[in-house]
């Protein structure tokens, strides 16, 4: 099974071009399933529908959350679909298997006042404060995922036309940037970033105090720090800012399709991005609906 798993992981990484986070999730789920099979001395190619049901029951008994079990079954299903397609197994044992029901939780969202309070915290009194102001404004202005934000390069920002180009593998999307975020970005790029970087060849938009690309952990710590400074009781993560971005746009009249485009929930190729950016409708919707545009 190990050999087949490695081939499957290679397929996901090289052919499907999944993100590293997604790949690691597949690996965790399938390695756990492999360990379970080995402990029960089963042959992975002979696993039946009933065996999968027993595995689900086992996961429940050891206290796994329904969301974790559901994701695990999805990973196992993808693996067996790959194996049946390549004729390594005769039948997919996950066919017809129902994953545990997951309660749909309402995303944690900040009010407009809470967002304003959070964004008021970083002060332009030093390099770090200038960077943090630009970063938090940008996170709320664009609704980008934390991984997307820290992956941005300086060249991905068009300050004159007010948009950011977000690249995710072969996919790209163009996201408008509001005036308040643009102002903070210009201040950071012109007055802080060029001092913070130690290497002139550094491409990262947001850098840490050592002049290197900011990490996910660094971003999370910054948000946590300003949340405490603002005395906001709600748990705030980069994803909460993303949820707040979408919710506030919707509340202010933006249509779901435009929000979906800005969030990058649809497959948009670079040519489609370019054509879409020429359409002033998306920019106008953003300007009218985003509280800080």
The string of secondary-structure elements, in order, is HHHHHHHEEEHHHHHH
Uncertain residue segments? 267-279
Tell me the CATH superfamily of the largest domain. Answer: Intergrase catalytic core
The value of Rg in angstroms is 22 Å
- Quaternary organisation: single chain
**What is the 3D form?**
elongated
Class by helix and strand content?
mainly alpha
Care to count the β-strands?
3
Any idea of the CATH class of the largest domain?
Mainly Alpha
Count helical runs.
13
**What is the CATH topology descriptor of the largest domain?**
hpI Integrase, Chain A
* Overall average residue pLDDT: 84
The biggest sheet amounts to:
3 strands, antiparallel
Distance between the ends:
53 Å
Question: If you had to describe this structure to a student in words, what would you say it looks like?
Answer:
With 293 residues, this protein is mostly helical. It is built from 13 helices and 3 strands, in the order αααααααβββαααααα. A hairpin with a 4-residue loop joins strand 1 and strand 2. The chain is elongated.
């Amino acid at each position: 099974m190990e050999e087949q798993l490695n081939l499957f992981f290679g397929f996901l990484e090289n052919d499907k071009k999944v993100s590293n986070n997604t790949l690691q999730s597949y690996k965790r789920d399938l390695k756990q399933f492999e360990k379970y099979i080995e402990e029960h001395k089963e042959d992975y190619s002979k696993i039946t529908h009933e065996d999968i049901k027993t595995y689900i029951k086992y996961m429940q008994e050891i206290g796994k959350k329904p969301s974790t079990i559901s994701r695990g079954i999805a990973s196992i299903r993808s693996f067996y679909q790959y194996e049946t397609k390549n004729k390594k197994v005769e039948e997919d044992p996950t066919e017809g298997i129902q994953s545990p029901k997951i309660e749909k939780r309402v995303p944690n969202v900040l009010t407009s006042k809470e967002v304003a309070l959070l964004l008021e915290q970083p002060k332009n009194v030093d390099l770090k404060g200038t960077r943090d102001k630009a970063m938090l404004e940008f996170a709320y202005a664009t609704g980008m995922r934390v991984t997307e934000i820290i992956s941005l390069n300086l060249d991905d920002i068009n300050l004159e036309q007010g948009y950011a180009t977000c690249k995710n593998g072969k996919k790209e999307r163009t996201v408008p940037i509001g005036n308040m975020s643009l102002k903070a970005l210009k201040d950071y790029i012109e007055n802080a970033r060029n001092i913070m970087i130690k290497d002139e060849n550094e491409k990262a938009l947001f850098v840490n105090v050592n002049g290197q690309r900011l990490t996910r952990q660094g971003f999370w710590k910054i948000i946590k720090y300003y949340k405490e400074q603002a005395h906001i009781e709600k748990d705030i993560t980069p994803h909460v800012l993303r949820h707040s971005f979408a919710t506030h746009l919707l509340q202010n009249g933006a249509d779901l399709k435009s929000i979906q485009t800005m969030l990058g929930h649809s497959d948009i190729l670079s040519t489609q991005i370019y054509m879409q950016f020429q359409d002033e409708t998306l920019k106008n919707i953003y300007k009218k609906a985003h509280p800080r545009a």
